[in-house]
Amino acid sequence: MIETDIHSRLIGWLKIVLPLLALVILSTLFLVARTINPDDAIPYAEVDVEERLREPRMTAPTYAGLTNDGAALTVTGEEARPAVTDGAGASATVLNGVLETPDGARTELVAGAGRIDSATRQILLSGGVTVTSSSGWQVQGDTLSAAMDATDILLPSDVTATGPAGIVTADSMRLTKEAGTEGRYLLVFNGDVKLIYQPAN
């Protein structure tokens, strides 16, 4: 009976002492906890929110579409902004484009800047343009326009092209689908065309 009383009293005391001990430990943790320094917080990217609201932009934009003759056109950029004047379309910097036609040909476009003209359904490239075709031609010019719904690429000003036949200079160059045929495309130089023939060794 005495052992039972001692055991009961011990359990009773433990029920009181243990919760008190837990409270003491918790209080100690809070008292000695290190004060948080806001400067030690994880740094976030420094973004000027007001500037972004004034000039909204999108990084790494991509346009992809299929022309009515089955060619796939993809254009990517470094940064894009909506048009300032009417809000339609967008302008972008450091553009790279790829046109893949159903016949297996591939044409790559590189430009310093460009914009999408929603009214005319065209992508307008500027800032120095380089066009490289899988047929071995590389054409350089100042500006380029590419239709968004058809295979139609035009360099309207002076162009210089290097290819299998040599070096060609012309007033303009155009890549289009050949009329009346299926899956055939034409690369045409127009205006004052000059060819420096360089036969393969």
Please explain how this structure is put together.
With 201 residues, the protein is α+β, with helices and mostly antiparallel strands. It folds into two domains: 1-37; 57-197, Lipopolysaccharide (LPS) transport protein A like domain (lipopolysaccharide transport protein A fold, Sandwich), CATH 2.60.450. It contains two helices and 15 strands. It has helices at 2-32, 49-54; strands spanning 58-59, 62-66, 72-76, 79-82, 90-100, 106-117, 122-133, 138-141, 144-147, 152-155, 159-163, 166-170, 172-177, 185-190, 194-197. It has a 15-stranded antiparallel β-sheet that branches. The chain is elongated. The relative contact order is 0.09.
Low-confidence stretches: none
Number of domains: 2
Task: Please tally the β strands and state the result.
Answer: 15
Which CATH architecture of the largest domain would you pick? Sandwich
Q: Give the CATH level 1 class of the largest domain.
A: Mainly Beta
Indicate the radius of gyration in whole angstroms: 35 Å
What's the overall average pLDDT, rounded? 79
How would you characterize the largest beta sheet?
15 strands, antiparallel
> What's the CATH topology name of the largest domain?
lipopolysaccharide transport protein A fold
Protein name: LPS export ABC transporter periplasmic protein LptC
Transmembrane segments: 12-33
Keywords: Membrane, Transmembrane, Transmembrane helix
What topology emerges from the helices and strands here?
Elements: H1 2-32, H2 49-54, E1 58-59, E2 62-66, E3 72-76, E4 79-82, E5 90-100, E6 106-117, E7 122-133, E8 138-141, E9 144-147, E10 152-155, E11 159-163, E12 166-170, E13 172-177, E14 185-190, E15 194-197
Antiparallel strand pairs: 1-4, 2-3, 3-5, 4-5, 5-6, 6-7, 7-8, 7-9, 8-11, 9-10, 10-13, 11-12, 12-15, 13-14
Keywords: Membrane, Transmembrane, Transmembrane helix
Transmembrane segments: 12-33
Protein name: LPS export ABC transporter periplasmic protein LptC
